[in-house]
Design goal:
Layout lengths: L3 H4 L11 H4 L7 H15 L3 H8 L3 H4 L9 H14 L5 H10 L6 H10 L16
């Protein structure tokens, strides 16, 4: 794979680089920006400080270490089992049950697991015009 400088003949001009060969994609997420800074420091042998300044990355964000949560798998299985046991409960009610059991979870974490597992509350069998 060629670098941007090789692709344009040694000089640096914007818009001349083949996007499929040398682009990391949009630098929206902090993880992508960290990857871009690391790539820049390796390829161009510049300091982390200079690479962060050029790419617009805060150095505190660059040095951030992502925490891995140890109990994610246990929580996932617990959410699935509670959703099977209580079929009409949604993610917020399941979150309340988890908190009663002693889990330290917030609604965002349970909602993320809920969506990732594709869990849904079944629709009510009654129709709007069948009431009384």
């Amino acid at each position: 794979m060629r670098t941007c400088i090789e692709a344009i003949g040694g000089g640096f001009e914007f818009g001349q680089c083949d996007l499929e060969e040398c682009s990391l994609g949009k630098l929206v997420s902090p993880a992508r920006r960290r990857e871009a800074v690391a790539n820049t420091t390796d390829c161009y042998r510049v300091s982390e400080r200079r690479a962060c300044r050029v790419l617009g990355q805060c150095r505190a964000t660059q040095r951030y270490k992502v925490r891995q949560i140890d109990d994610e798998e246990r929580l996932r299985t617990n959410v699935i089992s509670l959703s099977k046991k209580y079929g009409r409960y949604g993610d917020r009610r399941i979150m309340a049950l988890l908190q009663r059991e002693g889990w330290e979870v917030n609604h965002k974490r349970v909602e993320r697991l809920w969506r990732r597992e594709g869990l849904k509350v079944p629709q009510n069998s009654l129709r709007g015009n069948d009431y009384g």
